[in-house]
Amino acid sequence: MANLRLTKKGKLRSKYQPAVYFDSSMLIDYFLAAGLENPYEEIDWINDLKGGPDSYIPIFRTVIGSDKELAQICDIRRKLILWPETVKTYPVVTPLCILELQEFSAEQIFRQLASEAGAARLMQRKSKKDIGDYIRKLIKRRREEIEQKRKYHRSHTKTPMAKLMNLLADIQNFEQGMKGLHIVDIVNFGISLEDAFSTPSYYTWLQLGATDVLHILLAEHLGCQYLASRDSDFSRVKDRIEEATGIVVLTNFDQLIDVL
Fold first, then answer.
1. N or C: less crowded end of the chain, CB within 10 Å?
2. What is the pTM of this model?
């Protein structure tokens, strides 16, 4: 389905234009707000699970709801998910964005699970690389478990370790978080040595990271008219990006809401 939206050259077909490219920073903010776009009365069942009328959830909802930026990203989710017929600009993400989202998500989920296991304070002192090492050990143990279970023809899909790995994968939340967005493949995209010494090198001179440069190049390759990012680095080079590509860079939710 992702490829059907593209021409043979890898550009978005005209029916999916104009388009706005969500980079990973915008995607992560959008993803984290999953579920909060629902009217409060639609999640009363959560109250029942957490203690009925004495639940602390309404307090959290009130405090969180006072955050202007969160309210804006919820408005964006609500528009894209509940009223897609009103959307005038097609929101897209690429597998590059998904990889960065997975990196972020795995770290956050591991920290949350470790906190639930009583290691909250310990996790505060651990770096991203430390978390990666812990996850590597879990993957190794899971592979050993599968091998051992298969050796004795036993099921390995419902063990505590299997459950833990499923929580880390976070498939269900991934689907919920991505609602309203359209993932498109990267097709017929390449960077030559000549390219590396042309316009993209100017971005790197301005200390824009290689992954951010790739987001710009992919947005241009797809034919997107807009690039939405929460990364402050994009604000620094916004004018240069627009001059070189013609792509309008959106660096806050107000601007994104306007084009959607």
1. N
2. 0.85
* Residues near 150 by beta carbon (within 8 Å), at least 6 away in sequence: 156
To 5 degrees, how large is the angle CA 112–CA 115–CA 116? 90
| Residue (of 174, 143, 179) closest to 161 by Cα position | 143
Phi-psi label, residue 188: left if phi above 0, alpha if psi -120 to 50, beta otherwise: left
Structure tokens at 180: 């309203």
pLDDT of amino acid 2: 60
Q: How confident is the model at residue 40, as a pLDDT?
A: 52
Q: Are 23 and 229 in contact (CB under 8 A)?
A: yes
Distance CA 23, CA 94 (A): 8
Q: Return d(Cα 37, Cα 74) in angstroms, integer.
A: 5
3-state secondary structure 118-153: HHHHHHHCCCHHHHHHHHHHHHHHHHHHHHHHHHCC
Cβ atoms of 221 and 50 closer than 8 Å = no
| CB-CB neighbours of 193 under 10 Å | 7
**Could you give the 3-state DSSP secondary structure of residue 218?**
helix
Helix (H) or strand (E) segment spanning residue 174: helix 171-178
The structure tokens listed for 155 are 């099921």
User: Is 44 or 127 the better-scoring residue by pLDDT?
Assistant: 127
State the virtual CA torsion across 106, 107, 112, 113 in degrees, nearest 10.
Answer: 60
